[in-house]
Amino acid sequence: MGAVTERAPKQDRSRATRQRILEAAVACLAEHGWSGSTVAVVCTRAGVSRGAAQHHFRTREELFTAAIAHVAEQWLTAVRERARALPREGPDRTYAVVDMLVAVHTGPLFRAALHLWVAAGEEEALRPRVTALESRIGREAHRLAVDVLGADEGRPGVRETVQGILDMARGLGLANLLSDDSARRGRIVRQWSRMLDAELRATAQG
Amino acid sequence: MGAVTERAPKQDRSRATRQRILEAAVACLAEHGWSGSTVAVVCTRAGVSRGAAQHHFRTREELFTAAIAHVAEQWLTAVRERARALPREGPDRTYAVVDMLVAVHTGPLFRAALHLWVAAGEEEALRPRVTALESRIGREAHRLAVDVLGADEGRPGVRETVQGILDMARGLGLANLLSDDSARRGRIVRQWSRMLDAELRATAQG
Q1: How many CB atoms lie within 10 A of CB B21?
Q2: What InterPro entries does its record include (chains A, B) (predicted)?
Q3: CB-based contact (8 Å) between B86 and chain A?
Q4: Could you tell me which residues come within 8 angstroms of residue B116 by beta carbon, excluding any fewer than 6 positions away?
């Protein structure tokens, strides 16, 4: 009994340390870019020893890829949860969903991911990991968008309509990188969610 | 007379050297990213002396910002020219225009610009220049898109509809960074140019 109760808190502590490292890694990437994000910088930020980080992640590439994956998973879960509180259907729901999808692309997770994507274009050690990660997050974000929009992908064009919204969200994230683009973005989100809603309704009836 | 005829070829040579440097700078950025793009690397690629580059550009930041501006101007002019050969209106024109707008975002110019944008997020010396450049290119690309689509921005929602297409194009550029996304992209361009065309027609009649 003693051994079991002691092991549980130890596992909890290890999991908490891992999470602290992952969250510090995303914050570092978002603020300092890839070249400024060393394992040492992350350890200082997370308040953990270098040894603790090495226990969880063998390489810098593994650490940062895991960090983006972790925070992306948290975001996907949060969107699913928040979508339950939205109106069940109609233009208001469509608007709220598009707004949520766009919001994540203008926050620190997207900024961090962007640094990792761009660095992966130059660094062979990073590219295969990041390519696989990007493709996985892309698929999951698409699945999420289809689900929370209640879109029927069996209908022609619906898949591409939803994908285009996610690509637009990425573009809006880029446009927000150097300056506050929120006023323009708000108007685009309103107009495009209206177009999306009309298209999904027309397709559902057609 | 002698002095005048000698000066003209000298100016031509200087202009040609400047252009060679600018084009080499964009190619370097696209291939090696910001950290791998030094003035020395650009000079070697352009086949010019360091002195020649310094004659035209005082700093590395000035050189690369001028390079993106130069190639973006060339691209804007090329799109205007190619648009003259398209059908005058209708879905085929809309499709061809969207296809052209998206195409540039998946080529070396976008890749180079992306490296510069992301680096500007980290480097104070680069940020004001790149922010001003991004905003100028963004405005000109928007003006171009409105013109070649024959869109009437006096009608409600039209401005945001066209802006969203350019943001989608940027997002499609990002999605193409690490892997060939052309098949998926082709389907999205087809679907969204159809939706764009319907929206512009509906607004023009409304």
Answers
A1: 25
A2: Homeodomain-like_sf (IPR009057), HTH-type_TetR-like_transc_reg (IPR050109), HTH_TetR (IPR001647)
A3: no
A4: B29, B34, B64, B65, B68, B126, B130
Residue of B nearest to A159 (CA): B188
Residue B7, pLDDT above cutoff 90: no
Give CA A99 to chain center in angstroms: 14
What sections of chain A are H helices per DSSP?
A: 2-32, 39-46, 50-56, 60-84, 91-104, 108-122, 127-149, 158-175, 182-205
Check: CB of residue A128 under 8 Å from CB of residue A111: no
- Tell me which residue in B36, B188, B191 faces A122 most closely, judged by beta carbons: B36
Q: What pLDDT shows up at residue A7?
A: 67
Residues A25-56 have pLDDT tens digits of 999 999 999 989 999 999 999 999 999 999 99
Reported confidence tier of residue B89, pLDDT bands at 50, 70, 90: confident
**pLDDT on residue A122:** 86
Is the confidence at residue A84, as pLDDT, over 50?
A: yes
| Architecture category of domain A59-205 in CATH | Orthogonal Bundle (1.10)
CA distances, B167 to each of A153, B145, B170 (Å) = 23, 12, 5
Q: Where are the domains of chain A?
A: 59-205
* Under 8 Å between Cβ of B203 and B156: yes
DSSP character for B165?
Answer: H
| Residue at token pair 């990041």 | A130
